[in-house]
Write a structure and sequence with these properties.
This protein is mainly α. It is built from 4 helices and 3 strands. The chain has a 3-stranded mixed beta sheet with strand order 1-3-2, with no helix packed on it. This is OmpH family outer membrane protein. Keywords: Signal.
Length: 208
């Protein structure tokens, strides 16, 4: 009976869509043409700004830092590491127990007198079935933890999106770019610290 490989890797899903390339409209729709005779193209209503006249004021946000370095992100990572360690330790304990039983069975097979072939086959099959059950239970538990992780990350993303929008309004930004998509940008464009401060205040922790 072979020992199953049990690598646990942190979920790589990143909720980048919550932050990527966010544009904030500053003007309402232009008035529609109502005249029956041909007329020039509609002009923006008084107090509105045509889309091609909206100034581009850029902000840059490091979404990876928001997800991992925020207070809620650090809290979530700590809980996740503890949960995965407990899950792995429990599986290792069960596998070690099965391995010890398998070794005892092999010793009985070569003992004097040896265990009957039918008894050996029955006990070996029982150990193999138990091993399969352990692996299936492990996979089911891991899937459940993954679902909880995704839900907690969604909570962080929602709170971070609100913080990002508040910073954008305060600064008058019309476009926010993900830091990963910007090879270079002036430091004043970086709004990560401002968003992080608001996020930490609004969501200091999140439960896994």
């Amino acid at each position: 009976m072979s020992q199953p490989s049990l690598p646990i890797r942190r979920s790589a899903r990143i909720i980048a869509a919550a932050f990527a390339l966010c544009a904030f409209a500053l003007a309402g729709p232009a008035l529609a043409q109502t005249a029956t005779q041909p007329a020039p193209a509609a002009q923006p209503a008084q107090g509105t700004v045509a889309p091609n006249q909206i100034p581009i004021i850029v902000g840059v946000l490091d979404t990876q830092a928001i997800l991992n370095a925020s207070s809620a992100g650090k809290s979530l990572n700590t809980q996740w590491d503890a949960a995965m360690k407990a899950l792995n330790d429990d599986m290792a304990k069960k596998e070690n127990g099965l391995r010890a039983q398998a070794q005892q069975l092999e010793a009985a097979r070569s003992g004097n007198p040896p265990i009957a072939p039918a008894d050996y086959a029955t006990k070996r099959k029982a150990l193999e079935q138990q091993d399969i059950q352990f692996q299936q239970a492990f996979a089911k538990n891991k899937q459940a933890w993954d679902g909880r992780l995704n839900k907690a990350r969604e909570s962080i993303a929602n709170a971070a999106r609100k913080a990002m929008q508040d910073v954008a309004k305060a600064r008058g930004l019309t476009l926010i770019l993900d830091r990963a998509a910007v090879p270079y940008s002036p430091q004043p464009w970086n709004i990560t610290d401002e968003v992080m401060t608001r996020l930490n205040k609004a969501l200091p922790t999140v439960k896994l």
